[in-house]
Amino acid sequence: MITEKNIYFLVVVFMLTLVACCQADTHKGGEEQMQQEIQYWSNAADEMLPTELSISNQGMATLKLRTMRNTTNATNASVVGLFQMQLDELRLQSLNQALNTKEFVALSNPTTFIEGEVLRKLTCKKLGQPEMVKIASGSAARAPAFLQAENAAKALLSDVQKHPLYALSIEVPGPSPQLHKGEPLDITVVIANRGYKSVRIPSPDAWHEKMVSMTLEALRSDVPANDLKPFHQKFEMITKADLKQANHTDIADKFITLPPGGKSEFILSKRLTWEAGSYNLRISVQLPLENMEGQEVLRCELLSDIFNLLT
Question: Where do the CATH 3.30.1560.10 domains begin and end in the chain?
């Protein structure tokens, strides 16, 4: 005999079963999302120093930011290196949705490429399925579906960029220099560890061996843009011979150790034979960044802020 009490009991059991099923479906959907490996790759900043954002199937995002050249991203603008951050399903939702639209899946890749052109690549690998790779070339307009996915990836990139693991920055402190006839340019370059872990960089004794390049890049600032010619741009290589003094506390086996927040200072003197004028100038340093086990994390380029030089 079914009583009111029995009906109440059956309703409660039904509701609990329904909730459990919903939770299981939600958990299953989350697992399916997190089983997707994603990579965004671009050489827009520099052909030889590409940017890579990789996201594991557990949501661990790893960013290799090798240079900030040709980029307008203002987040930690002078900091390059390896960045890492754990992403949850909510943060990944926009990118996952963009990668799974029928428009994105249906995109076709270019069949030919122009040497040196900008390329952008989005890769998606789901458990048990073939890898999906979509490429956009700089010589053709990017499809809306690719742009949507790329913008979602770039938004995550900006978030990950706030979490430096192995990272460096460069600074040229002091007032803008002014050269007098016959005098060399004296300048101080400071390289700092901006990451959470200690790193190693080559000392001046290893610059040649480790292919470290330091360059003065200059462009006349007193010539109208429409009148600029190739000879108005200057590139001057800085070598160990131009080094007056190096200040760092921990050096061994031709490598400088920088703990988190640590800095290394290089005082340089370079004779220039430029014509008189006003120049916008910056320092470029390309070097390998190593962890404390001596393994190269990546090769990167440090770019100083632009400052003015009057000759």
Answer: 34-160
The structural architecture, per CATH, of the domain 168-310 is Sandwich (2.60)
Using the structure block, give the residue that is written with the tokens 């390309």.
286
Question: H or E segment at 32?
Answer: helix 4-34
- pTM for the full predicted model: 0.85
Per-residue pLDDT of 105-114, as tens digits, reads 999 999 888 9
Pick the CATH number of 34-160 from 3.40.50.300, 3.30.1560.10, 3.10.20.310, 3.40.50.720: 3.30.1560.10
Please list the alpha-helical segments (H only) found in 161-298. none
Distance CA 205, CA 25 (A): 61
Q: Taking the C-alpha atoms of 169, 174, 180 and 183 in order, what is their torsion angle to the nearest 10 degrees?
A: -60
pLDDT at 131 over 90: yes
Contact 290, 284 (CB under 8 A): no
